[in-house]
Amino acid sequence: MATRQGLDTSIVNRLGADEQALFLAVKAEFDTDIVRVWTGIDDLTINSETYTGAGQLLSISNVEESTDLKSSGLSVGISGMDTTVLNLALTENYQNRFITVYLGYLSGGTDTTVGTMTLFKGRMQSMVINDDPNGSTITVDAENRLIDLERPSNLRYTKESQQFIDSTDTCFNRVQSLQDKEIIWGRSSSNTGRATGGGGYGSGGVRDSRSVAKEQW
């Protein structure tokens, strides 16, 4: 992990330390509000943003990384939250909204962040809400943006598709006219011949240079 892109010096130094104080934090970006929670108790500041401590109420599935170009999703579960989070889950359009999971290090015995890294960033795909006498549990399934590579775009190299992307782009306006267009390539023109006089020779029996050029062509 020490060779992973985006790691600053503070993270690299912590990876080599004998003792680690790790934490996980989740940032869910809904349209009207952003939910920020972490696996500690008190409030925590990450990148000048405040994260509410959820403790053991916050659960995150395993994060998978590989050298293959594929999407690896994860699940984030949170239970016992107040009505604000529950209302967001019930009323907000959550699909394809960004969700980010951070892995960070604390200064020993404190709530001071000494380094963070983005462990996962993707889009929320589905949400399940379980309500029981002990409280509500919200589980969000998210996918990496690489999942878009598996979805067909349904776009073609046509004027209509390009106009859907950008109504001012005229790049493919003449594509349809090319379908039945006859293109002459390498065919001699019907008026190709030798210069007048002497069977292709100019005056005085000297061969016209233009005729030579045409024959060579």
Overview of the structural elements:
14% of the residues lie in helices and 32% in strands. It is an alpha+beta fold. It has a domain at 9-150. A nine-stranded mixed sheet has the order 3-4-2-1-7-8-9-6-5. The longest helix has 9 residues, at 83-91.
Give a quick precis of the structure.
Strand 8 and strand 9 (135-144) form a beta hairpin.
Topology:
Blueprint: H1 9-15, E1 22-29, E2 34-38, E3 44-46, E4 49-53, E5 58-60, E6 74-79, H2 83-91, E7 98-106, E8 113-132, E9 135-144, H3 159-165, H4 209-216
Parallel strand pairs: 2-4
Antiparallel strand pairs: 1-2, 1-7, 3-4, 5-6, 6-9, 7-8, 8-9
Q: Which keywords apply here?
A:
single chain; 217 residues; alpha+beta; 9 strands; 14% helix; elongated
Spatial gap, N to C terminus? 63 Å
Number of helices: 4
- Percentage beta strand: 25-35%
For the biggest sheet, the summary is:
9 strands, mixed
What shape does the CA trace take? elongated
Detail the poorly predicted runs. 195-206
Topology as H/E string?
HEEEEEEHEEEHH
Helix content: 10-25%
Oligomer: single chain
Radius of gyration: 33 Å
Q: How are the strands of the largest sheet arranged?
A: 3-4-2-1-7-8-9-6-5
Mean pLDDT: 75
Topology, number of strands: 9
Classify the secondary structure makeup into a structural class: alpha+beta
